[in-house]
Amino acid sequence: MSRFVLPLALFAAIVATLALGLRHQAEGADPAVLPSALVGHDVPAFTAPVLTSVRTENASFQPADLKGQVWLLNVWASWCTSCLHEHPVLVARAQASGIALVGLNYQDDPGRARAWLVEHGNPYVVTVSDNEGRVGIEFGVVAVPETFVIDKRGRIRHKFTGPLSEADWQQTLLPLIRELQRA
Fold this sequence. Notes:
It contains five helices and seven strands. By secondary structure, it is an alpha/beta fold.
């Protein structure tokens, strides 16, 4: 009898997860907007090695380095096809808006990541390396790309899952960024 408890519990967990996903979709929710338990909470504390930076000579980065600023954390990788699709939007909009955009290079080869930025442009004020994915786990990263909006107090205010389009930037992120910058 006890040998059936674990498989039954796993089956029940899978069914519950699928039911929540179907309910979320049936309610008309945008599949790009996945709820995050971190929205409204402080950015997870981490220290990560700097891969590239136009802003600092420091060998590592931590979120406290940007306290007092509204900033974005974009999780990306050179092996990610969707990241390549959103990258032109990041290059154009991050520089035009003056927002501090931090890249979290997720489970990638540092040499390939640097070459990718040279080839496609570097919109990030600093890019940190997360080779083992530990920082990504702290942020609840499901897949790349993901983008987090962080307010001046160091709280996560929004999570965007998937490649950002120009419309996403103009209609979702930019109004929130402007509102947070005025606060």
